Amino acid sequence: MSIRKYQADDLDSCLEIFEGNAPKFFDPSERDDFRRYLETLNDPYFVFEQDGKVVGAGGYCQGPKEMGLAWGMVRCDLHGQGIGSALVRYRLERIAQDHPDQAVAIDTSQHTCAFYEKMGFETLSIKEDGYGPGLHMVLMRRPPSLA
């Protein structure tokens, strides 16, 4: 198991992970946005490899007031095995090293907000159907002191 920087040839693996997590965790309409994000990547983005295969991915970006976690996901059949936690911790550690005074924000769904609460995030707001029908947008924030 290892975490490494995303490479262009990881695109298909990342899209497969996305598709396996739709429609519960991502609205299928977001697929093209995710593809464009990866094809024009300007932010740090990482993949989690297990047995030589990409099984998770996630990145972060600089927002106007704080850092933000971006497009975090784990292969659907591997949920609950610690891969997502490892990816979040890795990204938070990188942010703490490079931007120690920055809070970290994420917009996620109602299905994963409890996971992020365990990582020190607090819910700021919930927008019903924010991503699509039945998929609410939960805005969360983690103070910089928790790095």
Strand composition percent: 35-45%
- In round numbers, the mean pLDDT is 95
Question: How many E strands?
Answer: 7
At CATH level 3, the topology is Aminopeptidase
Note the gap between the termini. Answer: 23 Å
Strand order of the largest sheet: 1-2-3-4-5-7-6
Model regions low in confidence, pLDDT < 50 over at least 5 residues: none
**Helix-strand sequence:** EHHEEEHEHEE
Number of domains: 1
- Counted by DSSP, the helix tally is 4
Biggest β-sheet description: 7 strands, mixed
- Name of the CATH superfamily: Gcn5-related N-acetyltransferase (GNAT)
Q: What CATH architecture label applies? A: 3-Layer(aba) Sandwich
CATH class annotation: Alpha Beta
Helix content: 25-40%
Protein name: Acetyltransferase
Organism: Pseudovibrio japonicus
Keywords: Transferase
Pfam families: Acetyltransf_10 (PF13673)
Characterization of the model:
By secondary structure, the chain is of the alpha+beta class. It has a single domain (2-146), classed as Aminopeptidase, CATH 3.40.630.30. The protein is 28% helix and 36% strand. It has four helices and seven strands, in the order βααβββαβαββ. A seven-stranded mixed β-sheet has the order 1-2-3-4-5-7-6, with helices on both faces. Strand 6 and strand 7 (135-142) form a beta hairpin. It is globular. The two termini are 23 Å apart. The model has no long low-confidence stretch (mean pLDDT 95).
